[in-house]
Transcriptional regulator
Amino acid sequence: MITAIVLIHAATDTIPETAQAIADIDGVSEVYSCAGDVDLIAIVRVGAHEELADLIPARIGKVPGVLDTDTHIAFRSYSSADTRSAFDIGIDGD
């Protein structure tokens, strides 16, 4: 599975509608509105890189209100849940 983080600049007066329209696209797992340099961040998960070429410019980029996108492809995931499971060897501590 390929994960991409898409930073999205959106028209200010359409952010809620734009975010929902992006969230409704197959392959988009999450959309966050945020403060900072971008208006929305979308997490995209697809099976192949070729799907990104269709999904991001042809679908996300065409959503009304989207002004610009900047895509970052993830190599590896690091989270506290992943770290805990990596060290869990199934021994109960009781």
In short: The chain has a mean pLDDT of 90. The beta strands are 2-10, 28-33, 40-46, 66-73.
